[in-house]
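User: If you would, consider this record:
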Amino acid sequence: MPIQNDPGTAAAGAPAARPQPVDDGAAVCVLVGDLDIETLPPAEQALDEALRTRPSVLVVDLEQVGFCDSSGLNLLLKTRLSATAAGAELRLAAASPTVLRLLELTGADTVFRLHPSVADALAAPR
């Protein structure tokens, strides 16, 4: 799964990149492609790297994730726990209908702060 800073600058198949820092100590990590057992390592590395920057809020942009299986969901749950342990808040933004359905079916939508866009996630009160 490629990770990129700006959805307009990296093509599909692009290598993992650093999360994009934004104002107020927040960071945005954009995931692109499928989030499954075969594509997990680059996504996990980028999310871990984002947390190492010690953001107060980490927004995971899921707009370009077309599919997420249980291993992808487990990664998001693990990242949530790691963020909490690091004193950061994890927010998911712009999840596709397919990803939203997975979150709803598993009940994970009750443990994540979900936002319709990255801008909304960044603007939400802490």
Q: What stands out?
A: The mean pLDDT is 86. DSSP finds four helices and six strands in the chain. The radius of gyration is 13 Å.
